[in-house]
Q: What sequence folds into this?
């Protein structure tokens, strides 16, 4: 076997059509992280892999690996198509948003496996919940932030240490967690994002996710907390992170 032939387990984060019969797939693999792959002829109905490669699917792939251009797909078999994710628009949207986030992240070599497992857990868990899937998504974002080295802390004001959650006034991007009204008043308004009582309660529940189906979450709260996460990730990654998939929610 050539040195360049590699086998790995991977998620298809993005699938696009290429030429008349081919596809280009952005995979995230357990072994190598991001890999761009060209699958020749897979849109030809006579091809043995016709119709197999779908976005969000989990596959075992064999590729001819190239470092500077697209790798070539040699063999592919399905591990899990996660078809339950597509049974509900809300769930599909969140699953796509997770893939969209991974496409924007750079991963350290040693982190590939844990990020792969995290995405797999998110896709497995999402269909097990009947409502409030967004809480599972936020929890996933918290774990992504933690793995990247900037966990959000929700137990106390991150500046003065006060634990009375009634006094939490906002989320500080600089101090990675809640900031109380007293400390926020002494700092630039651009350092934090102001929250109201319901968003504060939702953020506090993310630590444990007990009874996650018992919450009633408003559209406005969803928008606010999505914005907090987007801004928080953008601040730490020094680039603008987007969740276009979520715009349909
Ligand atoms: Zn404080």
A:
């Amino acid at each position: 076997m050539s040195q360049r032939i590699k086998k790995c387990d991977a998620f298809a984060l993005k699938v696009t059509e290429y030429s008349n019969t081919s596809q280009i797939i952005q995979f995230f693999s357990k072994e190598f992280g991001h890999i761009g792959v060209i699958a020749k002829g897979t849109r030809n109905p006579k091809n043995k892999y016709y119709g197999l490669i779908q976005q969000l699917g989990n596959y075992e792939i064999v590729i001819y690996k190239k470092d500077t251009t697209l790798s070539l797909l040699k063999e592919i078999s399905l591990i899990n198509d996660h078809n339950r994710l597509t049974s509900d628009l809300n769930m599909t949207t969140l699953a796509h948003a997770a893939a969209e986030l991974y496409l924007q992240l750079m991963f350290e070599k040693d982190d590939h496996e844990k990020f792969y497992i995290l995405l797999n857990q998110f896709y497995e868990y999402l269909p097990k919940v009947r409502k409030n899937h967004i809480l599972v998504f936020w929890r996933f974002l918290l774990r992504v932030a933690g793995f990247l080295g900037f966990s959000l802390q929700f137990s106390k004001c991150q500046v003065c240490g006060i634990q009375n959650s009634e006094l939490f006034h906002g989320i500080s991007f600089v101090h990675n967690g809640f900031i109380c009204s007293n400390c926020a008043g002494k700092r630039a308004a651009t350092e934090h994002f102001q929250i109201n009582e319901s968003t504060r309660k939702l953020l506090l529940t993310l630590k444990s996710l007990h009874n996650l189906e018992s919450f009633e979450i408003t559209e406005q709260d969803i928008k606010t907390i999505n914005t907090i996460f987007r801004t928080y990730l953008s601040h730490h990654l020094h680039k603008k992170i987007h969740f276009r998939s979520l715009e349909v929610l």
Q: What stands out?
A: The longest helix spans residues 219-237. The mean pLDDT is 94. The chain has two domains: 5-81, 84-248.
